[in-house]
Write a structure and sequence with these properties.
The chain is of the alpha+beta class. The chain is built from 8 helices and 7 strands, in the order ααββαβαααββββαα. The chain is about 35% helix and about 15% strand. It is globular, with a radius of gyration of 18 Å. The two termini are about 25 Å apart. The structure holds glycine (GLY).
Length: about 220
């Protein structure tokens, strides 16, 4: 909000905002300290979209870089691409000088280890509710983090960013809705902006953020949309 009030670009402002959470080791659903995949590796997804230029960038399954939203912005600004994944995204970030670091904190490692030690005897990667599951672990399995931040500046320009460590104990390489433009984030500078948290697969199937903006275009309020 301070940046918006200073007249900074709304995209820089929302990225600065989500960086606070990406850098926070206590948040276990975004950036540094986010819960890892089933191999114990943190893989991050993020997208950004800039209303005035109607341009966007995204990264998925990005390892070892704690601010995927900043890398997503560079994808938007410095390439002709919209989405870069995995090793390619890491190489791209490194070539822009991003520092590699282990994103697994002691807390997130312990939660992962507990999950490993209590693997289901059923053929689900993500077991359904079970009486046997440790209640604390169950709450982590059920909690879907992710943050989205959208902003409107005083000149009427919009921007948005979505960032996440995705599903806890996901299959390595699983990509959620957050880096999918139209699903985890969508901005139309004339109409509005929307972004999502929650169970990404459901949102990918419904292209949620795009639909919200489209309903606003039809005249529905943001809440109705
Ligand atoms: N909404 C975040 C995810 O499903 O990965």
């Amino acid at each position: 909000m301070q940046m918006i009030k200073q007249g900074k670009d709304p995209l820089d402002s929302v990225i600065a905002e989500v960086n606070l959470v990406e850098n926070d080791p206590e948040d276990i659903t975004v950036g540094y300290g986010g819960l890892p995949n089933e191999k114990g590796v943190v893989e991050l997804d993020s997208s950004v979209m800039h209303g005035p230029t109607h341009n966007a960038g995204a990264v998925a399954s990005l390892r070892n870089i704690k601010n995927p939203s900043q890398v997503a912005k560079l994808v938007m600004e410095r390439t002709a691409h919209a989405l870069i994944v995995g090793e390619g995204a890491l190489d791209f970030a490194k070539s822009h000088g991003f520092k590699q670091e282990n994103l697994l904190t002691d807390r997130s490692r312990k939660i992962w280890l507990k999950r490993k030690e209590t693997l289901s005897d059923r053929d689900f990667w993500y077991p359904p509710k079970s009486e046997k599951m440790d209640p604390e672990l169950h709450s982590f399995m059920e909690s879907h983090g992710t943050i989205n931040c959208c902003a409107l500046d005083s000149t009427g320009d919009l921007a948005g960013a979505t960032t996440t460590s995705g599903f806890f104990f996901k299959i390595p390489g699983r990509v959620g809705d957050s880096p999918i433009i139209g699903a985890g984030l969508y901005v139309d500078n004339e109409i509005g902006a929307a972004g999502s948290t929650g169970f990404g697969e459901a949102n990918i199937l419904n292209w949620g953020s795009y639909m919200v903006v489209e309903y606003m275009r039809q005249g529905y309020s943001p809440e109705e949309s």
